[in-house]
Design goal:
The structure is a single chain. The protein is an alpha/beta fold and 188 residues long. Helix content is 38%, strand content 22%. It has 7 helices and 7 strands. A 7-stranded mixed sheet has the order 3-2-1-4-5-6-7, with helices on one face. 34% of the residues are buried. Helix 1 packs parallel to helix 7 and helix 6 crosses helix 7. The chain has a single domain, classed as Formyl transferase, N-terminal domain (Rossmann fold, 3-Layer(aba) Sandwich).
């Protein structure tokens, strides 16, 4: 059995897409959902799908024992699906090559601390970019720095708002993220 741990900070649309995708796959389970916000929508998704969840504060998240807690779930992959905190070095080291993130832009552009959600889309539009997209990448000790696994692109029009661009980006995320996870699990 392949096991996933999903980290998410918000409403959880990517987590839901991943859960739905693997719902009928008896070889893959979402073993845990971790959030840094006690009112995050992803926690209701966890409850609705009978998936254990864990809400972490900064102190426990950055404690070296947090990596041991995660090891107890024997994850094949740790998936960051809209998680806004930098993963502590102890966790990155403990799960080297097993942590992936999705970013709503074409890295290395529009990445780094503070570049998430609407901040990214606003920056892309302000720069008058012709295209944007998603990047699925490995997580290392630096924000949005790990090796790129997959990028998918969409056009940016002069009429786009951050909301309209976000809608197209979400479609790319919901399609490509679960399939990339599946590919990575099959490749192990």
């Amino acid at each position: 059995m392949q096991s996933l741990i999903i980290f998410a900070s918000g409403r959880g649309s990517n987590a839901q897409a991943i859960i739905d995708y693997f719902n009928n796959d008896s070889g893959v389970e979402v073993a845990l959902i971790v959030s840094n916000k006690k009112d995050a929508g992803v926690l209701q998704i966890a409850a609705d799908n009978n998936i254990p969840s864990l809400v972490v504060d900064k102190q426990s998240f950055n404690n070296s024992s947090f990596a041991d807690t995660l090891k107890g779930y024997t994850p094949s992959l740790i998936v960051l699906a809209g998680f806004l905190w930098k993963v502590p070095d102890a966790v990155v080291k403990a799960f080297s090559g097993k942590i992936i993130n999705i970013h709503p832009a074409l890295l290395p552009s529009y990445g780094g601390k503070g570049m998430y959600g609407h901040h990214v889309h606003e920056a892309v539009i302000a720069a008058k970019e012709q295209e944007s997209g998603i990047t699925i990448h490995y997580v290392d000790e630096v924000y949005d720095n790990g090796g790129i696994i997959l990028q998918a692109r969409c056009t940016v029009s002069a009429e786009d708002s951050p909301d309209s661009l976000a809608q197209r980006i979400h479609k790319l995320e919901h399609f490509f993220f679960p399939r990339t996870i599946e590919y990575m699990l099959e490749s192990k």
